[in-house]
Amino acid sequence: MADAAYRIVHREDGSFAVEIVRAGALPQMAAGFATEAAAESWIAQDRRLHATAAPFGTQANRRWRDG
Questions:
Q1: Could you state, in order of their start, the residue ranges of all structural domains in the chain?
Q2: What is the pLDDT of residue 59?
């Protein structure tokens, strides 16, 4: 699975959101974080989850294309 670019956005209502851009996918927005630290924590967790899932996604995609 490709690396993602993350950007923390300070919203007008004082909350924070995270913009996520992954190659080959539409940009996404995760919103509703009360603090910038909460948004950073979510980014770290999302990176860990995608790094853990990457080998499975890659193999499945390769099998489907080669199949």
A1: 4-66
A2: 47
